[in-house]
Design brief:
It is a single chain. The protein is an alpha+beta fold. It has a 5-stranded antiparallel β-sheet with strand order 4-3-2-1-5, with no helix packed on it. A hairpin with a 2-residue loop joins strand 3 and strand 4. The chain is globular.
């Protein structure tokens, strides 16, 4: 590991102090709480949609969330370690076989639906191991 990677790791650890980020993958429906500053007030704004992509690049990691708002598809890219991202909640786990779900951009209605993973994905697998 070179010096830059060590610095990035230390910075990520500093940014994540006191925060917990759940394990989520493309296909999962997530709710992202973003800090919004309006004038002198600050509030949390929830953005809920399907995670269609995840880029794991150390401190530059990000994820893309897509939702349909008033009949229009809206995508938003969130930096994973940004201070404006307060927390991320996994609403439901999706069962997909691709890492990037860009094909959902061309689909509407029922064909854009993602099957729910009843096993629960990464969290359920970890919980099952702990019980055994």
């Amino acid at each position: 590991m070179n010096a830059i990677e060590k610095i990035n790791q230390a910075h990520v650890a500093e940014l994540m102090a006191g925060k917990t980020m759940p394990d989520f993958a493309p296909g999962d429906t997530v709710k992202v709480f973003v800090k919004v500053k309006e004038g002198d007030k600050s509030r949390l704004q929830a953005y809920e949609g399907v995670c269609i992509a995840r880029k794991n690049a150390g401190i530059n990691s990000s994820f893309t969330v897509r939702k349909i708002s008033f009949g229009e598809g809206v995508e938003r890219v969130f930096p994973l370690y940004a201070p404006v991202v307060d927390k991320v909640e996994v609403v439901r786990r999706g069962k997909v076989r691709r890492a990037k779900l860009y094909y959902l951009r061309d689909r509407r209605g029922r064909s854009a639906r993602i099957t729910e993973d009843m096993a629960g994905g990464a969290d359920a697998a970890g919980a099952a191991d702990k019980k055994a």
